[in-house]
Amino acid sequence: MKYFMRTVLAAICFVPLLFNGVARAGDIKGTVSVQGLRSAQDIAVYVDAIPGKHFDAPAQHVIVDQRKMMFVPHVAVVLQGTTVDFLNSDPVGHNVYWPSISGNKKLAHNLGTWPKGERKSFQFNNLGVASLLCNVHPEMSGYVVVVATPYFAVADKDGSFEIKSVPPGTYTLKTWSEEGKPTTQSITVGSGALNVDLTVKK
Description:
The structure is a single chain. This protein has one helix spanning about 1-20; strands spanning about 25-35, 45, 60-65, 70, 75-80, 85-90, 95-100, 110-115, 120-125, 130-135, 140-145, 150-155, 160-165, 170-175, 185-190, 195-200. The protein contains one helix and 16 strands. The chain folds into two domains: about 25-55 and about 155-200, Carboxypeptidase-like, regulatory domain (Immunoglobulin-like, Sandwich); about 55-145, Cupredoxins -  blue copper proteins (Immunoglobulin-like). Helix content is about 10%, strand content about 50%.
């Protein structure tokens, strides 16, 4: 009986230690302010590559629609290796191509042209930014931002963003925007919410 009680007490004492040893993920919440830009909307915010960490691409595809003569969303952030489905929801033929990924013209690609209701897919395995264009409608533009971690967000019109479930640690937080300069900030994430203010300049 005494042995049983000692075992129970040891187990009770061990449980808090077990849970304390499991670090809880935290959320990164913040606001992007802009200087010289029209709006903070569509600015990508993401945790840069984490040394020694590799993340498997999601099985679920990301959809970029061509709707009302626009790429929707205008900026899509995806984890490296993600497959993007390009859908045409307009009653006219659309084309999707990008002349480079972050300036590397060897990574240019043209998916061709297809009618309403159809889609074509592409797996983005290279880090960087693909500038989406349509050679049928030159006024159309969009972006696929390929990043190394699944911890990312796109700022709202008011500049607010939230990146959920980030493991505790010290990371580099980066931004990308269509017109502004990239920004970099070191952050340390704990088990609670981390509030971050970022400024993007033209």
